[in-house]
Amino acid sequence: MPESAVPESAVPESAVPESAVPAVNDPQGLGFYLPGCVLLLATLLKLPALRRNPRDELLRAVCVLLALATAVFAFTAIPSLVAVNRMTGVPNAAAPLVYSLITAFSGANIVLILHWSRGPADVDGERTRRRARLCAAITVAVIVAINTLFVLGDAPVERLRDLDTYYANTPFIRETILLYLTAHTTAAVTMTVLCWGWAREVRGALRAGLALIVVGYVLNLCYDVAKFAAVGARWAGRDWDVLAVEVAPALASVSALLIAAGFVLPLVAEPVVSRWRMWRRYRRLRPLHEELRGATERSIDLSAGGGWVPIEIRLTQRESDIHDGILTVNPYLQAELRDRALRRELADGRPAEEAAAVADAAALVSAVVRWERAGTEATPSAGPDAVLTSPSSPQGLVRMSLALSRSATVRSFRRSALEERSPAR
Predict the structure, then answer these.
(1) pLDDT at 403 over 80
(2) Could you tell me the maximum CA-CA distance found in the chain, to the nearest angstrom?
């Protein structure tokens, strides 16, 4: 295309071909490839779950979103722009490609929102699927419009970083820029509102991840504001290109890192937190396990596996040993003794759950002493729940174990049981 085809208003008087000045501060594209790699990692971390659940529409939407975000940063880097322009032989051919990817990413955001906001009224998900298909159709239409407008316009001078402002007054190119920025802004606003509302309803790693995503999309909005401001300044005859060339790309890079971290954090943190909780429960059950060690004859020795034995197996074995031990000493559990301990704890103002755990622990230590005095020859009764209430839940077992090591009431009941035992000797 001849350079004279560019409207005079599109090119400022001081403009020279970008290749003539050292305008590229990131020639290797690390500012874009780095967040792109993080997003690619997030995508790869999600793929195993998608393979296990290929029909999960929400998971599929997340994977598409992350893949498109990866592509956006891969093709927005300066080396990628140059490569596309050289391969096609068309100056700025990379621009509609990048705009199309950004628009597709924006549409993927909205599809993800639709699946997240699926209400109980949409039991079979058909209503959500219809809306997602409509969103996809609109996104495709916008992408077609972007490419059509770009073809109709004239952009003969290759601009690797400031195309948005350089051609801000060029017919059809101007509309292309406004169209992709509007689509991006709409998606960013919607995602910010949805994720903020959801973050207030959940806890833990998911809430932290959503908070990161919200901050990321707020920065996306700042990116759009910077771009719109720079384009608007060109319309007013001013030069605010620094907003589009320096500020906006920096915001986009940080935004992508935060969004990727927000998606990855629950995926990585939840298993870590789950295992940490299992280790904590395993350690807290130690006093109860030690108390019943003598009454547990069929315990599996896990010491041969050393540190390689998974915590899931360790915890399951410890809880199984505890239940077996309670079953063994069950004939010596006394409901009257437990009731006495419970009344004492409640009278001291102890919360009901803690008081029950202390009462169970007091009854248990007394039963263990009596079982040992009997010479371990008693036959167990039907089950351990006749007297104790704590063994009915994992949390109850933990409270009971903590009471064994901390409660003065439990210690006093142990002393009483031992004093009863002494004359028999």
Answers:
(1) yes
(2) 114
Residue 300 pLDDT > 50 = yes
Q: State the Cα–Cα distance between residues 254 and 259, nearest whole angstrom.
A: 9
For the chain, which residues make up each domain, given as ranges?
3-11+19-276, 288-424
Site of tokens 């589009």: 244
In the block, which residue shows the tokens 């437990």? 338
DSSP conformation class of 352? H
- As a whole number, mean pLDDT of residues 86-90 equals 92
**Whole-number pLDDT of residue 33:** 85
Q: Could you tell me which of 369, 352, 349 has the C-alpha nearest to residue 410?
A: 369
Rounded distance between C-alpha atoms, residue 113 and residue 194, angstroms: 7
CATH number of the 3-11+19-276 domain? 1.20.1070
* Predicted pLDDT at 200: 85
The answer to whether 32 touches 74, Cβ cutoff 8 Å, is yes
Nearest to 400 by CA among 368, 365, 371: 365
Count CB neighbours of 271 within 10 A: 11
| DSSP type of residue 380 | P
Q: Give DSSP secondary structure letters for 69-110.
A: HHHHHHHHSHHHHHHHHHHHTSTTTHHHHHHHHHHHHHHHHH
Q: Which residue from 264, 269, 265, 314 is spatially nearest to 289, judged by alpha carbons?
A: 314
Q: 1-23 as b/e, with b when 16 or more CB fall inside 10 Å? A: eeeeebeeebbeeeeeebeeeee
What is the band of 218 on the pLDDT scale with cuts at 50, 70, 90?
A: very high
Token pair in block for residue 235: 């319309």
- Examine the pLDDT at 294 and tell me if it is beyond 90: no
Rounded-to-integer distance, Cα 164 and Cα 173, Å:
9
DSSP annotation of 2 reads -
Closest to 57 (Cα-Cα) out of 108, 102, 22: 108
What's this model's pTM, rounded to 2 decimal places?
Answer: 0.67
The Cα–Cα gap between 114 and 122 comes to: 11
Q: Is 138 exposed, middle or buried (0-12, 13-18, 19+ CB in 10 A)?
A: middle
Residue identified by tokens 């167990």 is 380
Q: Is residue 258 a contact partner of residue 216, using CB atoms and an 8 Å limit?
A: yes
Residue 6 has pLDDT above 70, yes or no: no
Is pLDDT at 14 greater than 50 in this prediction? no
E strands, 193-329, are none
Distances (CA, A) of 8 to 13, 200, 238, 274, 397: 9, 52, 15, 64, 80
